[in-house]
Amino acid sequence: xxxxxxxxxxxxxxGVIQVIDVGDACAYSxxxxxxxIRQQTASGRFRWGVARQGDPRDPVRIxxxxxxxxxxxxxxxxxxxxxxxxxxxxxDAEARQPLALLATxxxxxxxxxxxxxxWHAFPTLDTAFVSPTLSAWxxxxxxxxxxxHRDELESRVNMASRPLxxxxxFERHADGSGTGLGGLRLAAGEAGRRLPADTFPELLxxxxxxxxxxxxxxxxxxDWCAGTLLAHQNLRRxxxxxxxxxxxxxxxxLLESWPLIPEVLxxxxxxxxxxxxxxxxxx
Length: 283
What we know:
single chain; five-stranded antiparallel sheet; 10 strands
């Protein structure tokens, strides 16, 4: 089995990480430069360490893991192929089709039981998200009571799955289609169904909504995450162009994700954004 692959971090979404897996030891990186090491000891416990590119064989931090040392020395250029083809989707209550991505797994045996089908947009303490769509709506309705944009986003997405939210695992195939597996609150016939590629949202959440406010809010969320979403592979060209434009407006996430972006359409614009991000970071 190829030890080099990428996976998406979800629940909430935190971007793409690179993985080097040699069985009894793994290395993880969010930027392709510094690696977090996990080793399994003889007792079955795990210990952690850190290695940086250019010094991956630190005898203190990566002791008794010759296979991982060799894999780190010889790893191919990042980004590695994203291989988490098992995806857990929150289902739309009416259409019973994928609505929001909850989790992904590389191996089928790691899928696990579905317990919490609630979609989370950001970590608990991250309340920085601002939606231009909601801001414009709030300006037009000054007397209304307005909730934080993150809370409004999560509420609208999760309400579309209620009153009894259902979630389903799918195995995605090379053509983008997906075969339904197990899940929570599935109807008869949903396990084993095969959905075409265009049934699945290209990014994290379905962007097609009858309500224009919700549609704009979801688009704003993806634009907010653009710096990390650019590390996704097999994006449509129009989607990548849009995300590049959005990432230039909020460039700080590009500092970490830049080595993991598989394709750049407007390199000049993104490199200018990187310079801006470094100046912002230094300040």
